Structures are given as structure tokens and as C-alpha cells.
Amino acid sequence: MGRVTDTHAAPTPSSFAEEFLDELHFELGVSRETASPTDLYVALARAVRRHLVEGWFDTLSTQLGGDSKFVAYLSAEYLLGRQLENALLATGLTEVARDALDGLGLSLDELSEQEVEPGLGNGGLGRLAACFIDSLATMDVPAVGYGIRYEYGIFRQTFVDGRQVEQADDWLALGSPWEIPHPEMAVTVGFGGHTEEPAGTGEGTADGAPGPDARQWVPGWTVEAVPYNYLVPGYGTRNVNTLRLWSARATKAFNLEIFNSGDYEAAVRGQTYAENISKVLYPEDSTPQGKELRLQQQYFFVAASLADTIARALGDGDLHALPDRVVFQLNDTHPVIAIPEMMRLLVDVHGLGWDEAWDLTRRSFNYTCHTLLPEALEIWSVDLLGRLLPRHLEIIYRINEEFLASLRDSGGNELQVRRMSIIQEQPERAVRMAYLATVGSTKVNGVAALHSQLLRDAVLHDFSDLWPEKFTNVTNGITPRRFVRLANPGLSALLDETVGTGWVKDLDQLRGLEAHAEDPEFRRGFRDVKAANKQRLVDLLATRDGLHLPTDALYDVMVKRLHEYKRQMLKVLHVVTLYDQVRSGALDPADVTPRVVVFGAKAAPGYRMAKDIIALVNAVAATIDADPALAGRLQIAFPANYNVTLAEKLIPAADLSEQISLAGKEASGTGNMKFALNGALTIGTLDGANVEIRDLVGDDNFFLFGMTEPEAEALGQAGYDPGSFYEQDPALKSAIDLIASGAFSHGDPTAFESIVSDLLWKDRFMVLADYRAYLDAQSRVEAAYADPDAWTRSAILNVARSGFFSSDRSIRDYLDRIWHAPAVPARSNGLRD
Ligand code: GPW
């Protein structure tokens, strides 16, 4: 199904070819003969973009004309992936473009490969935001995604001697055909300075006399936030939403002043300082470092977005209508400074009284928490916050004072008051952003059923006792457009034939596959698709990474950020055990199920243990490769620089999806959903959304292992001793000893010492405790894989029963439980009529 188009003539290959050449000649200024592959790609992208603009205008005029409510999604990350194929899908122009290019002796697939993906996110949280804006557009919901246009996205990963080395991701180097800058719409954002009593008249507020609670913030310096619009096309609809990313620029006044004083170096320094704000994405996933520049980034995009939102939602209208016109969703705590910023705007700038402003603010904001790890909960030192945002700190203090007073009023004891304070006192005074978000929001949600339960029972339990109705769950989802329709054309064609094409917008229709799970012909077709996807992956990894892989093997895939809680180490111990058993003669290589273990993972650059684990994976891979006994039986493939583009090729080829975090640590996971929808079976713990996946696909079609969350919690309480597991399990002992012996490091026993000693003495995520259960589950995997018919049946049922994990369903849940913003289909405004 394509775009719902207008009355005027649909593009043909020849009209499209003309538009493409127009772009190439007149916009890029190069001839067909001299054009580089990048030029050709850029011209193609811009020719496609033309076909989104009309729907975008219609969407804007429909939404701005009425009195609809819109969703302002605030996220520091959007991990978009490549844009071209998605835009072609949305416009229904894929075949037209292919034919047009063919006619010019060019190949659509080759040009598509030129695109550098915008990696403006770290992992799951950023990719979730990208899936959500896709679903919002597809469902005609008025929505704007707000974020930061990082000049450098997530670093490019390379391996040198098996160790990760980071390179800058200069994704804008060759131009970005998808963005539309609006320098004339720049918003000024202040930082630093001091606060004072507002001047008696006028100065304090936009509307006249200062309000009773107003203070005046006199910033010490300012920067400009320049908006860049990205078009977000819905699928099978006219609607095209907006993603608005802000880029930092030095203010003109600032520059002029210094230039006039003749201090050119200072002027340039100032410019560099300002522009640093949107320079680079922080590469820490779930482990914020509390750096000043990061707080600058957060306030920078939030302040610009709120100014933009208020103008858009209200124009000159009544501030009291704010909660009816806009609903803000805070994607984790990164944008939570928006709460005091809204208070500042209402109280200081617009002169509202505190209570009224607080009521409006609370009714406009909602907060999604994405973690359970204490080290992932953002805190900002009072010292830093007060220096950078003095007025915001005052506002946070007052929010906290009033909140704590209300607690005391309703009989809270001092212990409880101290526990719930937005300000922590030890080890240093700091603002707990998750608490600020919870106090300042209408709804707080977790991202999977188990996660939301644990938020209520543990991380935020005092707050859930106080405000039980505030807490809700919205289980994450993924867009079927990118992760099935685009990533898996073979499966998509089979689905179209079997259940019709409606599944792309209504993923529950996949249920219709269940009836075919017993059909031998359908199973054959399904198996053929998987085999073709493996072949596609093998070809890609041969050219991309120089890997030589068999297609006739079980593809066992673990792709996600490298983090101890995700337990890549458990996977390594499994592989090392297989190797060890073959090497010692305990296992006949002929009895090893041929298996390719694929890893994809970036480590935060400062995360030592994660980087050591990457080195170990590469070392084990090399050692196994060098051993003829395992040839064709066991191999590790660790392509560097795992990203969205690679995920789209890896996931459809997988047989087995590794979701093996310690129960109670992974908030949801979204990779787990992508694999199930592409017909991989999961080996996993009862963690995050795995729980819901297993409930839906059925326990016969899921390899469950490991401790439950209460069991892991109890083991921790009882005093976990990893050494005892090592002593009691000879296979485990032998595997660890092998690593410690230097077998994977050319005899150097020190190479992986820190990993080994951490496992034996600390093992915070209880890898050793779950090792035996994991190995047993892997044996069940092998037995199941030996029966191809039964395996295929399970894989089909995974696809058929995973419709729930569409991000369209997540968005429906947000709409019903939190946002209450009706869909508004764009009306044709007749740009060309
Ligand atoms: F720590 N997630 C992430 F909660 O990718 F902020 N980056 C992050 O910084 C955080 C969470 C944060 C992930 C969760 O780890 C994953 O379980 C979840 O599926 C994903 O966010 C989307 O909700």
C-alpha cells in the first residue's frame, strides 16, 4: 500500500527521472557524468523528499487550523537509521524510483548504500523514540519530536588488535538531504548569571507587571538554537509529522560586541563555546556521567522546544488552555529540566501565580522511566545546576519545599520525607531528576509490565504509595514498517500472500498466520525466507567485514549495547565451554550443532570492563577460527560498528535471539521484539518484555532459563558468592580457568585478569549463578533445532503472536492512558490546485 495521493498525476518513472536530474543539475550543480555516488544519492533523496512536502504542509495547516491537542515528545536521542528507503515506502515510490534510475543506468540499491545513517542515539531509548514518531505519524496523531541535532552521532567502532577504538561519526560531512534548516526561526537560550527581584513595572513579565512569585533571571551568556526540521512520513496516510532538532549557534550580539572591541580570538572562542553544545552525542548508555556540557545540552533543547511548543500550541491564546493543547512526554530524565523551565516561563515571564502555574505544569507533563539500575538514575549536583541555571535551582527548591511540606501535612515521618526529597544530601547535595519528574508529572510509566511493577515496588515505591493512580505501564513496541516491511522483504511478501497487506498498519493481523503453521508448504516458504536472509547476511559480512561464514548453521545472535547487566559474558562462557569440551575430547565435534554466534555491541568509551569483554569476544573468535577441529561447527562473528543499518540485515537472518540479562535489570528490551517478529526463537530470562513475549508466543516456543527477579534479589540479600558456583561446576571452572590461563591471549594470563577476578569475586549480575541453567537451555535449543519442522512451526508462531509488539499498539496505549490526544487526518489543502 502506498501513500494516499492527490488528484494530480501520480509520478511516473519518467517524471521522477526528470525531478532527479533537476536536483542533480540545478541544486547540486553537477552533471550526470561528473556526479559522485554521493551526489547521486543526495539528488535521489531530495527528489523523494519533494513528494513528502505537500502532505507535510497539509498536516501542518490541518493541525494548526483546528484546536487539536498535540504530543510534544522530548527526547535527547533519536536513533533514526537510514531515511531513503523509509521515505520511498511511505510515498509508494520505491518501484517508480527503481525504474527511473534503471533507465539512467543507475541502481537504486547501490545509491541507497551511500546513505550514512543519522546515529543520534545510543541504543534502545533512542531507537524507541524513532519508532514512536513513525507510529504517531502513521496513526495521524498531531505530534512533534523535539531533540538535538548532534553534529557527531554515536561513534564509529573499529577494532584494533581486537580492542574497541572509537572514531568520530562525521555523519554530516557529505551533507544531509533530509533536513530543512530554519536559521530565521532561531530561539535564544540563556545560561548562568544570577537572579534578582524583578523591576517594578514591565521588565519582569511579558504581560506587564511581574507576578507575585516572579523573580528575574539575568543570564550570564546566551546561545541561539536553530531548528532543523525532518519530515516524518506516516505509512498509508497523507500525514507527515515533524521532527525538530536544534543546533547551537553563537548569538550575533555576542559576536558583534567582541568583534567591535577588536578581540577576534575571544570572539571565535565564544563561538566555539556556543557551538560545542550540539557538537557531540554523549556515548554513555544508561550510565550518565554528570558532565556540565550534558546539562547544557539538556537545557538547550528543552528551553528551545518549550518556547516553540507554547508558540505553536497557544499562539496568542490563553495559557490556561495549555494542558488541553499540548501534552509533553519526557523520554527518561534527560529532558526533565523542562518542568522547572515551564514554571519559569509561567511564573517569571507570564506572571502567573505559583499554584496556578504548578497546576498547569503538572497537568501538561508525563514521564517515562527506562531503567532500574541505580547508576542510571540521573542526578545533578546542586553546585553545578546552580551555576548553570540559578533560577531553575530556586524553582526546584521551592517545588521540593512545597512537596515535602505536603508530605509532613499528611502525616509523613522525617525518614520518609528524607527518602522522598527531590534533593539528596549525601554524598553531595544533588537533584534527583527521577523524583522531580515524578512529582511534576501527571503520569509515570515503565516500559514493560515487569518493569512498571518493579518501579512501583522498589525504585519509586514511596511515590506509588502516595499517588497510586499516577503509575501506569506502556509496554514498548517497534515499528513494523522498518523492522519487518523494509528489513525483511522476503517475509513481507510471504505475509502479504498469506494474510493480505493490512498487517503493516495493523500488526494483530499476523494472527492469521497461526492457521498456516501446520501447512508444510507454508513452512517451506518460511524456511526459504530465513535461508535467503542468512545468505544475504553472509554476503554482506563478507564484503563489509571480510568474514567467511557458512549459511547452513544455527544463527545465534546477541546484539545490543555492551553492558555487564546484559550479560554478554554469559554468552562468552557458553562458547568457551563448547570450545573447551571439543578441545579436551569430551565432546565430539561431529556432535556440535553447527552454529554461528554473532555479536554486535558498542561499549561506552570510558567503560573499562565492557571494553575488556569486547576484547575477549574477539580473542575467543580468533582462537576458535584457528582451530581446525571446529571448522564449520562453531564460529564467532563480531562485525564492528553495530548500528540500525546492520540490525536490519542481522535480525531477519537470526534463528536464536539472546535476551539473557539478569532478571530485574533490563527495563524492557526492544531487540527481543524485533527478533520474535522476524521468526527467531528467544533464549531468555524472565526479564523486561521477555516475560510478555513468552506469555504471548507460548512457553513451548521460547527457551526460558535462569533465576526470577525475586530469586536473584534473594540471592543477593543472602550474600552471593560466585566462587561457590565456580567450585561446584567443573565445566564452569574449566571454562574460566581456560580464559585465565591465557589460552585466548597467546599465553598471556594477565590479558583478561580483570574479567576473571570480577567474575570470581564480585559478579554483580550473577553470571555464574545462571551459567548451568543457561547451558541446559542451550542443549534444549540444539535438540529443538535438530527437528527443522518443529523449529519452523515455533518460529512461525513467534511471528503470528507478536503483533502486540507493534509500536502502533504502544502509541495507542499512550493515547488511551496518558495523552488523550485524538487523531487528526490531514486535509488536502491543494498546494498545486
Ligand atoms: F538509563 N535505555 C537506553 F534509562 O537505551 F536512561 N538508554 C538509557 O540511557 C536508558 C535506558 C536509561 C533502554 C533500556 O535499557 C531498555 O531496557 C529499554 O528497552 C529501552 O531503553 C527503551 O525503553
Automatic annotation (TrEMBL):
Whether Protease counts among this entry's keywords is no
On the tree of life, the source organism's domain of life is Bacteria
Q: What GO biological process terms does the UniProt entry carry, in alphabetical order? A: glycogen catabolic process
Against InterPro entries, the record matches this protein to:
Glycg_phsphrylas (IPR011833), Glyco_trans_35 (IPR000811), Pyridoxal_P_attach_site (IPR035090)
Give GO terms: molecular function aspect only: glycogen phosphorylase activity; pyridoxal phosphate binding
Instruction: Provide the catalytic activity annotation.
Output: [(1->4)-alpha-D-glucosyl](n) + phosphate = [(1->4)-alpha-D-glucosyl](n-1) + alpha-D-glucose 1-phosphate
What keywords would UniProt list here?
Answer: Carbohydrate metabolism, Glycogen metabolism, Glycosyltransferase, Phosphoprotein, Pyridoxal phosphate, Transferase
Q: Which major enzyme category is it?
A: transferase
Cofactor(s) this protein cannot do without: pyridoxal 5'-phosphate
What does the record give as EC number? 2.4.1.1
Gene3D superfamilies this protein is in? Answer: Glycogen Phosphorylase B
Q: Where is this region: Disordered?
A: 192-213
Q: Which residues carry this modification: N6-(pyridoxal phosphate)lysine?
A: 674
A cellular component term from Gene Ontology for this protein is: cytoplasm
**SUPFAM superfamilies in the record:** UDP-Glycosyltransferase/glycogen phosphorylase (SSF53756)
User: Which family is this sequence assigned to?
Assistant: Belongs to the glycogen phosphorylase family.
Q: What does this protein do?
A: Allosteric enzyme that catalyzes the rate-limiting step in glycogen catabolism, the phosphorolytic cleavage of glycogen to produce glucose-1-phosphate, and plays a central role in maintaining cellular and organismal glucose homeostasis. Phosphorylase is an important allosteric enzyme in carbohydrate metabolism. Enzymes from different sources differ in their regulatory mechanisms and in their natural substrates. However, all known phosphorylases share catalytic and structural properties.
Kindly provide the name given to this protein in its UniProt entry. Alpha-1,4 glucan phosphorylase
> Which organism encodes this protein?
Luteimicrobium subarcticum
